[in-house]
Predict the 3D structure of the following.
Amino acid sequence: MNTTLFQEIINIVGQEHCSRDLEELHCYSYDSSKQTFLPDAVALPDSTDQVAALIRLAGTHQFPIIARGAGSGTTGGALPVQGGLVLSCARLNRILEIDTDNQIGIVEPGVITGEFQQHVKKHKLMYAPDPASLKFCTIGGNVAECAGGPSAIKYGVTKDSIIGLEVVLANGEILTTGTRTEKGVVGYDLTRLFIGSEGTLGIITKIITRLLPLPEYKETFLLVSSSLSKATELVAIILQQNILPCTLEYMDKTALEVVSELLPNPPASDTRAMLIIEIDGKKEQVIEQSTRLKTLAAEQNHCNLQQASSAKDIKDIWLARRSISQASYKISPNKTSEDIVVPRSLIPELVHFCEELSKDLDIRILTFGHAGDGNIHVNIMAADPSPQETKKAIEAKTALFKKVISMDGSLSGEHGVGITKSPFIDLELSKTSITVMRQLKQLFDPDNILNPGKIFP
């Protein structure tokens, strides 16, 4: 990027809010996929008008522009794979409105998800999506990837909590989608089109969120099992008993090992799996469902149900669960993290397949995740970065994906496609589907300046 062009960026956002210094560019060259691509420059706009001006500049001079939140994505969705300008949303971080009467919030994309949750709690409201990275990920990034989280079983994923957007298109025009109302079916649902589009169709600058009343009561349980297969089978049984948890999380033995010191009570030596079960709502309903859960657990000969007795216990349980991904690096830094989805009744089959795959390829694999909706995180742990271990990891990933598709599942439940899954999308999507998606990309971004190189192989 030449000096004249960079000066135009300075003119838009100000000298102190952009850079092309090598040290600064390296900070925007990577995400949690552990891949690195150096941008030509970075800019931090603080208004929709500045975003629109930067996009128009990119269109005029034909350079890529890549929106970035916290860089916590695992599939490379925010990486500048073709160079260009990284547009950081760090200064677009304002909570613009909380409408308590209509239970909606309006935020900018750089708002930290966990901070927004704490803010609306003061109004006795909740923003339901709760990805594991909520303490540092941004709502804009959540929207771009359609992030999920433990509460998805009851409250849905990000798309279920977003009712409208403001988006800057590739030509610099500003588009508003959706409404501030619960209903609105005039025209196509453009809001859903942009959610999960990974910044390839436009750059989101405002988000209208649906808020819910804060549940008045919640109970938290740990179910510790000596049988991996029976623990995963129990997931479907719990739901068939008309028990509707707001959280139903699963961890295998290896996942437990890496976070055992964080749990209130270290699991017994014969533990093979653990479920975290939470039930929320009106107190009498929670107590009634909790009683049925206890009765169901007592009928099983493979498990022990423990009820959290204090706020500290609950905090420790969730610290352990949300720490698994990072703690797994204790096993090996050479990790491939996948977030596949299968029908929840088939979770036992999927977990058994992963166990057998681990043995067949002599590579460590741990599983954990959102058992309530079938979204299991499969971490493939190569022993070292050698060509032999790398080859085994690729074989394991390919075999996993083929198995998931054979089970009528999906390659990604919440992490998106980015660049790490793009070579595999034709396993799941038909030729016609991919063609229609490419046509949409061409319609919205004819010059391919918005986050190029993502989703499509």
Notes: Residues 387-406 form the longest helix (20 residues). The longest strand covers residues 217-225. Residues 70 and 137 are 5 Å apart (CA to CA).
